[in-house]
Amino acid sequence: MIRAALCLAALSIGGAALAQGSLSELERAADEGVPAAQRALAERLLSGDGLLPNYARAAELLRAAAAAGDPAAQNRLGQMLHDGLGVPQDRAAALRWFASAAEAGQPEHLHDYATVLEADDPARAAELYARAAETGHVPSMTSLGVLLQDGRGVAQDPAAARLRYEAASAAGDMRATNNLGLLYVRGDGVAQDYAKAFALFTEAAEAGSRQAMTNLGVMYENGFGTAVDEARAAELYRMGAAGPVAGSDPGLTRDPRLLPVLPDALDSLRQSAQAGDPIAEYQLALLLAEQGDFAALREAATLFRAAAEAGHGPSMANLGRLYFLGLGVPQDFVLGQMWLLLAQRAGTDTAALALAFGKRPTNEQIAEAQSRAMARLE
Predict the structure, then answer these.
(1) pLDDT of residue 12
(2) Model-level pTM?
(3) Which of 57, 200, 258, 347 is a plausible cystine mate for 181, CB 3.0–4.6 Å?
(4) CA 275 → CA 137, 263, 271, 318, distances in Å?
């Protein structure tokens, strides 16, 4: 059992403060078979909004709501079946649910169905994208433009692709802005215009499109639409490849409430840690983990575990990281995932760790981690 002494009295998970009453009402409505409540509760279980993530339970709720005819639940269940998240992967069943959801005509559902069909049936995907685009769904405008540009599922028509890209770009879709720039670079459906392409790539890059940053780097390197600037090109290439990357280690999680430990306080810190003070255990573990040698990491893992068992969120996050990396403990993705889930439940921001390590466990390992985490909270 994890003692809650150090947990925040009111948790904030995923940036949304949770009112316990509203969750109770939602759970009661879901138990009574209200499809919208079942879907809403499932979304909280998927995101960890106010309660521990539980993909299997979310899938059960979505299946009930989907069977009752809720299009949004049908679409979400299709996504889970397609990805094998919380349920065995079943592409055929996923397509059936995507199709059911799309029958209601919501542009988002038409778009999602088209996306999963695109590789095997681009003609049908193009039809669905077109229906969604007619309602003003911006991502569908861009996706239809890509099919028109490439001639997949439809006759190749760069000029028609340009019209879709222009409409989506005007609505703020930077993928469309970048693709429009590529048309001007190549002269596809438009007169070749490096200056225009340069302006479009600049707009998309300044809005954060990493693909556009790379393309803008090419323009600077070759002097297309601008003067040659190899230094600027190199900078843009770095920016295009930068940002949070899945698999990269974000390092140790700090507790923003605590000040750094002064060197002359180490002796008293160790004494407090030996006496079972969770904060001292965490702070000492942090110092040991930063040393990086095996003995120090092993002691750090022991201390992080003690503080984690006392309910300290950052210690849970750090212990999970050690398990994922096999530092000071045997590598164990189930335990790593379990401690990250518990850290999130304790109010610690685990987004960077989830990005770094989230794809390492299998769906089966994730389900086991969720089960173990729930058992610890009972």
Answers:
(1) 29
(2) 0.70
(3) 200
(4) 60, 20, 6, 21
